[in-house]
From TrEMBL:
Keywords: NADP, Oxidoreductase. GO terms for cellular component: cytoplasm. The keyword Oxidoreductase applies. This is NAD-dependent 15-hydroxyprostaglandin dehydrogenase. The keyword Acetylation does not apply.
Length: 319
């Protein structure tokens, strides 16, 4: 073990639900203070914050309401974390969305479903999924260099996706953001050996979180009888291993430690399905075919795309 999270402190964005909540909870259970940054807390997240706000708790949870598209609020997030915890050791810019109708390539700005302003010059999906992780990474590095102790390795853990390897006609902006995250993480690789800041990422398959389960338009492409979900808890375990270990097992759950071991260093991207593997930047075989990586009815979304394109005036505000 190269690093223990016990007695350390972290920021996790998007931890009001899903993978990031599971990761924040796991950090807290292992004695790490966590600032949870999100627009709001789901009931299960509020329970975690309440539990770890008690004076008797050995680790502390703080909720900071944060819109990750607002850079001032990202800066404030670090200011609050420093005030509460002092030195930070772990930052996870995890907040993300999966191409909802309100910020979607096939429902362009100015059309009825979109909330992206027609002449606003930006997509919310890019701001949340890519610009926010980039800016948060900059802020984290600045904090680590300014406030960090050289003997304490620092960690930035990103949330990528198998979409960072695959094309997907139904979600092209999402796919572009996850390719971007992989490129960002790999570009930061040398920080590990040079300044002790390890930047890594997990690339999950199909995860049973509100990102999917709260959206009927996405759930219709999943066949529960044929498709196998990966749990947010399984992904969180791999994220913790990226921080605490110098290698990660290729098998998670009850059989963890019995599979192949993948070395961990700056720039590592680990695909997490029902197994774990390192994603190579060159000549990678891709994620297809492994349990937890597939959805049976992706053609449903593709049919929707061509249905939208068949409408007269697609992409105009007059549609």
């Amino acid at each position: 073990m190269s690093f223990s999270v016990q007695g350390r402190s972290a920021i996790v964005t998007g931890a009001g639900s899903g993978i990031n909540l599971s990761f924040a909870k796991l950090l807290l259970e292992n004695g790490c203070n966590v600032l949870i940054a999100d627009l709001a807390l789901r009931p299960e997240a509020k329970l975690v914050v309440d539990q770890y706000s008690a004076p008797s708790s050995r680790s502390k949870a703080v909720f900071q309401q944060t819109d990750v598209t607002d850079w001032k609020q990202l800066e404030r997030m670090f200011e609050v974390a420093e005030k509460e915890f002092g030195e930070l050791d772990i930052v996870c810019p995890g907040a993300g969305i999966y191409e909802p109708h309100w910020t979607n390539f096939w429902r362009p700005p100015g059309t009825p479903d979109s909330r992206d302003a027609q002449h606003g010059g930006r997509y919310a999906l890019l701001d949340i999924n890519l610009t926010h992780p980039i800016r948060t990474t900059q802020l984290a590095i600045a904090h680590f260099l300014r406030r960090g102790t050289p003997q304490r390795r620092k960690h930035i853990v990103h949330i990528s996706s198998i979409a960072g390897q695959n094309p997907a006609l139904g979600a092209p902006i999402y796919v572009a953001t996850k390719h971007g995250i992989n490129g960002l993480v790999r570009s930061m690789a040398q920080l590990d050996s040079k300044v002790g800041i390890r930047v890594t990422a997990v690339a999950p398959g199909v995860i049973k979180t509100p990102l999917w389960t709260d959206h009927p338009e996405k759930m219709k492409i999943v066949d529960d009888k044929a498709d196998e979900w990966v749990t947010p808890e399984e992904v969180a375990q791999v994220m913790l291993a990226l921080i605490q270990q110098d290698s990660v097992s290729g098998i998670i759950g009850d059989q963890e430690g019995k599979g192949p071991q993948f070395p961990v260093s700056g720039g590592t991207v680990l695909e997490v399905s029902k197994t774990v593997r390192a994603v190579s930047p060159f000549n990678d075989p891709g994620p297809s075919g492994r349990a937890g990586n597939t959805v049976s009815d992706m053609n449903v979304l593709e049919d929707e795309v061509f249905g939208l394109l068949s409408q007269k005036g697609w992409g105009t505000s007059k549609l």
